[in-house]
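Quick one: structure for this chain?
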Amino acid sequence: MAESHQNREFRLQPRSKPRLKPANHHLRANLLMLVTAMIWGSAFVAQRLSLDAIGPFLFTGLRFLLGAGVVSAFVVVMNRLQRMRQGLDQADHACKPRIDAALLRSGAVLGLVLAVAISLQQIGLRYTKIANAGFISSLYVVIVPMLGVLLRHRTGPGTWIGAALATAGLYLLSINEHFSIMYGDWYQLGCALVISIQVMLVGHYAPRHDPLLLSIVQFIACGLICLVIGVAIEPMHLASIVRAAPAILYGGALSVGVGYTIQVVAQRDAAPSHAAVIFSMEGVFAALAGWIALGETLSTRALVGCALMLAGLLACQLLPTARERVEAHEPQSAESA
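Got it. Here's what it folds into:
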């Protein structure tokens, strides 16, 4: 989710294969991103179910270490295939990814921030509905450009329209008729704020490093931090870990490992606006998963709130794109005149 802003230069397709038509590329990319959004949204169910067996820090630690293992295996396999395609001996280190102190430092910083964000999300899931968690934690899509304003980044009206819609939706989703808010929603809002900082840090570090290697280091750092905290303060029994194994496998191997790998593959051929729209559907899939798997339902008021929040997420991403297209054509029109 938060890693979608990383620089993507890892080549995955063999050069010998004929290129598909751009339309086929985009269709495949959109379908893959939709699958990723479904995986991430349904992973909230695994996160909730894990709380019945083990603590939030232990689950997050095991989850991200497992995810790091899956992404690492993917990198090893793809690098080996690249060397074979280029006719290089396997002992040749020319194509091996570079791991240096700067990469480790950047990944450690990102991992620390990610550990804080995911821990807030995981703890909050005990005290709120899955739909609330899915939509509120996705607010980073709106918060990131708003934080950019503080750093004097250029922004458009879509940011403010999206923020207004998302705020109204958050009010209807989280605050009921008696003006009380679910305790866990505060944790999810905190998660969205910290994830926003993490996304901005990714934008700073990613251009300097290989995106997959940076993610692996980030996941390992996040996993180790949470695992150490979990071992220190949470009860740890082998039987409990076995009970939580299905949730750990889904949340780690599938959501973190496979989900992020698919994201990297898909966004190679995807338009940024399409990616933003499709990944914004994560909250919708979270709500559907909570209803199907756990029988969680939402009131009409909360459903309207979800719709407004989704509209805000989309407005924040799509309206700047539309404005940029208009501005891109204006100089051409002026020159032709």
